[in-house]
Amino acid sequence: MTTSRSMGDLFGGATSGGWLNMRTAHPHDDPAFDIGVIGIGAATPYPLGAYCMDAPDAIRRARSWPGILDHHDFDIHGVTPSAGVLPPGVTAADFGNLDVRDSAAAKDTAYNRELITTTIRAMRAKGTIPIIFGGDDSIPVPVLAGYDEPLSILQIDAHIDWRDNVGGESLGLSSNMRRASEMEHIGKIVQLGARGIGSARADDLHDALAYGT
Question: DSSP assignment of 117-150, as one string?
Answer without folding.
Answer: HHHHHHHHHTTPEEEEE-SSTTTHHHHHHT--S-
